[in-house]
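Sat 14:20. Reprocessing the chain from the morning session after the first attempt stalled halfway. Input below, unchanged.
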Amino acid sequence: MDLSCPHQALSRRRALTAATGLTVGALLPPAAVAGPASAAAPGPDLATAAAYTNPVIWQDFADIDVIRVGDTFYASASTMHYSPGAPVLRSYDLVNWEVAGHSVPVLDFGAKYDLNGARGYVRGIWASSLAYRPSNRTFYWLGQIDFARTYVYTATAAEGPWNRLTTISTPYYDAGLLVDSDDTLYVAYGNTTISVAQLSPDGRTQVRTQQVFTTPSSVGTLEGSRFYKINGQYYIFLTRPANGQYILKSSRGPFGPYTMRQVLLDLRGPIPGGGVPHQGGLVQTQNSAWYYMAFVDAYPGGRMPALAPVTWTSDGWPVVQLVDGAWGTSYPSPAVPPPPRPVTPMTGVDTFDGPSLKPRWEWNHNPDNTKWSAGNGLTLRTATVTNDLYWARNTLTHRIQGPVSTATVELDHSAMRDGDRAGLALLRDSSAWIGVKRDGGAARVVMVNGLTMDGSWNTTGTGTEVASAALTGSRVWLRASADIRPGTGRPGTFSYSTDGTTFTRLGPAFPLGNDWRFFMGYRFALFNHATQALGGAVRVLRFELSAP
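Finished this time. Tokens:
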């Protein structure tokens, strides 16, 4: 987070601190606000025939913005320091999702995002907005970076290519972009004080901005704006981190005045041990049914998207449909047309058989593109001389599938040089890895833990080797398994094989940290860095993510 702006950064931290480890219970009464009682009143008991199960994605995709274009649903999510940023998810039924591309191709916001003299951990792509403009058949992504300015990217297809349209000097914090029915572009944004900006017709500049709402002290913090026009009414959908959702409504126009109603507060979520569903978006299906897609704090894995149906009161307020007084673990599947094709699973095998990476991969900070290549495997040439994995460039990450999953990597280490370190990590602010160390002309497979960062994301531990075994031959299979169910001390374990069939456990179980402050959840990470001199390389022939 950007500590130079503590009035915004710390408000999110304080709110999330209050929710960490929270055992959520029955819905609390609404605060004293305009409108009648909470819109999260229990709805009818919903049957589970032809049902889906929450979370709809058990991977780390937070701050969801969700839209529908024709028969296709799209969503965007936060990625902080990972590059490319702002993934675009695609679905045909709101339940089964694939990664289609990224709205921000490279984090070209300063040297820290290149691991060049500084680091961008827990900065970069925060809550942002995804919209589609029918008049020019164009997708828009809008987000602020480092509380300094706002960037807008556009594409004519969700998978890209995406290009920067403009930079706006006003940092639209936690913004929601609205394409109005008359094609005007508006942005709702802010923390506690909520404002609305109007953009120029080409979307490149700000025409005006105006404060439209101040959050009552009885509510506290509101942020995470999503902006809608529904049946002629303007709505700003806001989160109270990390346990509530509120909505503002105006019948007089996008600049208000607005009245507020509570949507949910301290609502039991669908992941045992996880938090309250919040900070997402509303979307309407082809048959006019409405859904709310939120995320659930579920560390050590991250923030997992969950879906619930929404109905509307006669006076135009949304009501989340509950099951036994909670956000349901299961609901009837949305009634939508048959999909044109199956979506690409988020688990499975990747042999890196093409020149570009599949969109489910993201680098830890921007890569040095001269030091990697794909096609007949993934070649990672050493890009950094360091003994600190957190400083090593070209570490390639993949989200972990919950609740439990395993990554297996086939690694050709024959081109490593003395001092090189390559392998498979469980990567977060407390990390461990299994991999190959080459020293004195010999290779060993090792398990290393004790890689740590402090709360300002400075390295406090570069790792301790706790187990090893000699290696012969040029290939080794590395395996990491992770239990990312919410809770403390969930285990990550490591093993290796010299034939790809029989695996041997290496090292003790690694307790995954579940502190929320890093925001992003644990990831599997492929890395290769030097400790002596550049020039070595490894080739990843196969990556498999499997879940029971």
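The first helix runs from residue 6 to 19.
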